[in-house]
Amino acid sequence: MGIIKFLRKKYWKDAIISGGQPLTFSCDGLMAIPDKAYELFTEKELEEIYEEKRKIRERIKQKIAELD
CA distances (Å), 39 to each of 4, 8, 35, 67, in order? Predict the structure, then answer.
């Protein structure tokens, strides 16, 4: 895999995990992820990404529960 493809996949993986593509010139805005981005990944890779996203959300929920 070339460096360009690696960096592209890394960018879109991070965007999927964070819930969207960052808006230009915006601090908190997110745009929808285009379908083309999902085509970069195999089904197994997407499952792993969504599993990682689920684990992150669970850790956040746990930390919030600890604060209460």
Answer: 16, 12, 7, 39
